[in-house]
Each structure stands twice: as structure tokens, then as C-alpha cells.
Specification:
With about 100 residues, the chain is of the alpha+beta class. The chain is built from three helices and four strands; from the N terminus they run βααββαβ. It has a single domain, classed as Alpha-Beta Plaits (2-Layer Sandwich). The longest helix is centred in the middle third of the chain and has 13 residues.
Length: about 100
């Protein structure tokens, strides 16, 4: 299992447009083989921050997804973040919280 965690810093006035422009990517990614979760979400405390959370069954599934993303060009006029940080975590195990 692989987790991808990221954050994007934007002008607060651009956050909603940024999130809307990623809806198609979320729908497409969630339909890909091996995708368990794929979400961009607004940080409820910081109006200029968006968080990315992805969960993939395997590194191979994530690599296939990344290949598809690289092949697609961003549409003109799409909001570009001021900064971003995305980290891939390889998961050794999992368990339910509190159980």
C-alpha cells in the first residue's frame, strides 16, 4: 500500500478555482485500477492551502497513474500553486484506530 500526501499553497482568492479545476482529475484517478482514495481538499484553517491525499494498492498502480498524469497537459489558464510539496509513503502495515 502507498500513501501520497501533499499540500499546495495558493493565493486565497484562487483556492476555489484550483479545487474546481482538479475535479476531473479526482474522478479520473479514482476510476484507475489500484486507486483507493484520491482527494484534493481545502484546508479549513488556512484559506491559501489545499491538501492532497491519495491511497493506492501498490507502487505499480501509483506509477501507472503518474505516467498518465505526465502524459496529460494542463489546460490553459489553470491555476498554478505558488508552492507545493508532495511525498510518497510506502506503508509496511495498517490497523484500525481504537480496535
Amino acid at each position: 500500500m502507498v500513501i501520497v500526501g501533499g499540500s499546495f499553497e495558493l493565493e486565497p482568492s484562487d483556492r476555489d478555482e484550483f479545487l474546481t479545476s482538479r475535479l476531473d482529475t479526482m474522478h479520473t484517478s479514482r476510476a484507475e485500477p489500484g486507486c483507493i482514495e484520491y482527494t484534493f481538499s481545502a484546508d479549513p484553517i488556512d484559506p491559501g492551502r489545499v491538501v492532497l491525499f491519495e491511497l493506492w494498492e501498490s507502487r505499480d498502480a501509483l506509477d501507472a497513474h503518474l505516467g498518465k498524469l505526465r502524459a496529460r497537459a494542463d489546460p490553459p489558464g489553470r491555476v498554478t500553486p505558488l508552492t507545493s510539496s508532495i511525498i510518497i509513503y510506502d506503508v509496511a502495515g495498517q490497523r484500525q484506530l481504537g480496535g
